[in-house]
Amino acid sequence: MRVMGVDPGLTRCGLSVVEGGTGRQVIALDVDVVRTPSDAPLAERLLTISNTVDHWMDTHVPDVVAIERVFANQNANTAMGTAQAGGVIALAAARRSIDVHFHTPSEVKAAVTGNGRADKAQVTAMVTRILALQTKPTPADAADALALAICHCWRAPMIARMAAAEAQAAEQQRRYRATLKAKAKAKKGSSPAPSRSAT
C-alpha cells in the first residue's frame, strides 16, 4: 500500500510518500515541504499547494492520502489556514478517486512513539528510526508528514476491519427493516375485509 502523508499548512505544508510492506515495515519514497510566503494572497498560496500536490499525486499515484485533522486548540488563524490547505489536498485526492483519511495529532504520536503527547523531537527521532533514515527529516513538517503516512500504514488494517463491521451492521439493519416491512404487508393483506351492513 502506498500512502501519501500530509501535514497541512499555508506557510509550510509537509508532504511524504511511503510504501507499506509486510508487518510493520515501511519504506520512505519521498518527502518535502511546500512553502508559501505569508504576505502572498490566500488564493495564490492555495494554488501553489494545489499545483504541487497535483504533481505529487500524478507522480507517485498513492493508494490513500492521510491528512492531519485540524487541531481544535490551535488559534483561529492557524486552524483556518490548516483547514483550507487540507481541503485543497482532499479535493485533489477525490478528483482521482483516492481514499482520504484524517488522523488527529495524538493518534499519529501514539502510533509512532507510543505516547499521544510526544513532542516534535520525539516524533522526528522515531520517524528516523522506523524508516532507517541516514539523517533526520527537517523541518518538523516533513517529519510530521512521514509520521502521518506511517500511522496510516499501521492503522489501515484496523480501519478496514471497522469499515467492514460497519458495512455488515448496516446490511443486517437493512435486512431487518425489510423483514419487518414484509411482515407488516403480509399481515395487512391477510386481515379480513370489513363486513358491510345490510341495506
Task: Write up this protein.
The chain has a 5-stranded mixed beta sheet, sandwiched between helices. A hairpin with a 4-residue loop joins β1 (2-7) and β2 (12-20). Helices cover 55% and strands 18% of the residues. It has 199 residues and is an alpha/beta fold. The longest helix is centred in the C-terminal third of the chain and has 51 residues, at 140-190. The relative contact order is 0.16. The protein has helices at residues 42-60, 76-95, 105-113, 120-130, 140-190, and strands spanning 2-7, 12-20, 26-35, 64-68, 99-103. α1 runs parallel beside α2 (76-95) and α4 (120-130) crosses α5. Residues 178-188 have a biased composition (Basic residues). The active site is at residues 7, 68, 141.
